[in-house]
Amino acid sequence: MPEFPTGFRWGVSTSAYQIEGAASTDGRGPSIWDAFAHSAGRIVDDSTGDVACDHYHRYAEDVALMAGLGVTAYRFSVAWPRVLPTGAGTVNPVGLDFYDRLVDELLGHGIDPVATLFHWDLPQPLEDAGGWLNRDTAHRFAEYADLMAARLGDRVKLWITLNEPFIHMSLGHGMGVHAPGRMLLFDAFPVAHHQLLGHGLAVAALRARSAAPVAIANNYSPVRVVGGSRADATAATAYEALHNRLFTDPLFGRGYPPELGFDTAVVRDGDLDVIAAPIDVLGVNYYNPTGVRAPEEGSPLPFELVPLTGYPRTAFDWPVVPDGLRELLGWLHRRYGADLPPIQITESGCAYDDAVDADGQVHDPDRIGYLDGHLRAVRAAIDDGVDVTGYFVWSLLDNWEWAEGFTKRFGLVHVDYRTQRRTPKSSYAWLREVIAAARREPVR
Q: Active site residue: 347, 404, 433, 441, which one?
């Protein structure tokens, strides 16, 4: 394994709805994922996140697993409806107390708390009022950010406003396969704008109460043209603008990509200035490249997504392409230049069909290979001049994987969902050695 720079942040990531459980505990309100998961036919195995990994009650055990791994940071998300059950107004002090305890437990083990404010679990009452289609939600998000900064701002080491706003817009509001289940296609643009407006307003709110740096975590996917026609190339350009630029160009004062032809009537004077408030870190979530070609005649979209062949595949049927991460980081570096802040890889991981063997162990050599390849890709990008300062593995635990329910396992730690028994996998032991070596022999 190559060496990494001094102070490189080694972390693991999770999200509230996927691990916390305790859905009706402590005054927590309902989220859009509660409603979605309890609707028939939405989740592959008809499961819900009501219990998930029961992290709410087992957080001390999970923090001990992080300490045993040797990570220097933990990226978690706050459940908005746990602290503001209706999304605004009356605060739930018991819910806030949970995050107090979690943050203090992390600090007690020398682990930096990295708090994500929105990882897709919008309070259901805000959705009932229009959700992210409603401009008012951006302002409610800023109030929520102010609340969290007032409570945790003296201890959180990095704030992340939004997680993967592109995925939340496209799968939740464009295609209807995630909560809240809307199928708006390109009419989902207001969701993009209001998420970004909420981000910009939250940046100001966080900075008013906390000295910790502020970031956003975007999902990126290098685009590969499948086919040799001009129409295929045009389709790939459109998809790149949608997936990789829609939520990044505005952050750096470049406005929305004109190639997409969105109706931008929801954008008001001054909004783009709010969105372009400087950030301290860009979070990069990377899983795989995307194959794109021209769509069939009559398609409502200007592109068609197609599988990339010739690569190993995960249990999610995603291609394993470590060099895509190096390619992506280089693209960001070239495109945004001096405007680009330091990057942290805020998610990188893979799902495999892991099981506890007869010896009581969980052997996952494919995940070890995945992590090895992607860490080497990060080092290659650093050698190419990209300022990458951290890597967070998705995920610490096997968890409830959104529309896939409990059928996909991403964790370094296996979870028996019936007993909640945690079993570190062989990838956990491998990564522990990598981190230990890196922290013993830091380089610049």
A: 347
